Structure formats: C-alpha cells, structure tokens
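Readers of this paper often ask what the protein records in our data store actually look like. Nothing more is needed to write down the fold, since each code stands for a local backbone conformation. Below, we set out a record of this kind in full and without editing:
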Amino acid sequence: MNVRNSVLTVLRRVLGNKTLTIRSGIAKGHKRRFGLGFIPKWGESLEDKFMSAKNFEGQTVFDVGGYVGLYSLFFAHKVGPSGKVVVFEPNPLNFEELNYNLKLNNVTNTTTLLLAVGDVPGQLEMAVSPFLTS
C-alpha cells in the first residue's frame, strides 16, 4: 500500500461517518457524508454556471454516472416536487454513498439504479479501486 492509499484509509476511518455541509459548487448547501472531495474549490466551474442557469422545473433528468450524488442533489432540487431524477451508478460503493446522501437530504423525487449506461446492451466486468472510487 502506498502512502496516498494509507492516508485515504486513515481519513475514511477517522472521518468516514461525519456529515458535512457542502460549501461550494453545484451542490452547495446540501449535506453529505465525508468524502474525499471535501476540500472546496474556489469559484464555480463553467459547467456549474451553465447548469445553474437552466430551468429544470417539472422535468425528468437522467444523471448518468451519479457517483455519490452531488449533481443528483442539485437536479433533485432544480426539478422541484413535480420533476423526477433518474440516476445511474454502476459502482456499488458509490451507489451506497449516493443513496445515503439522497436520504440525508430528504430527497424523494429521485430513482437510483445500480447500472451502467452504454450504447450497446450487454454485461462487462468493472475494476474499481477501493481508495479512489470515482
């Protein structure tokens, strides 16, 4: 195990069940369980600005590759109570965290699916690092 992986393991053990409020970015103001993206970025990305300017009220949004739900939280808020978010996340570790974070924020207009999305039907094996699940 290299130094980076050792540090990540210690951080997960010490802070793994702490709840944080996201201070910047697309999911600002929402809660999440500790993640390695806890260090805030300074300013919004161009993608964040673009998405924030769109009106998603009442629409259905497909979040492909939901990771731990940061965009899912954003979309769930933006579509409002009459909208719907469908989230696809193939990594079981991320899928668990995604559902935890949605529940933590009392999100009820979202459906999560433990599936990958591609242009061809079928099944593939997926290798995932336990240290860097993204």
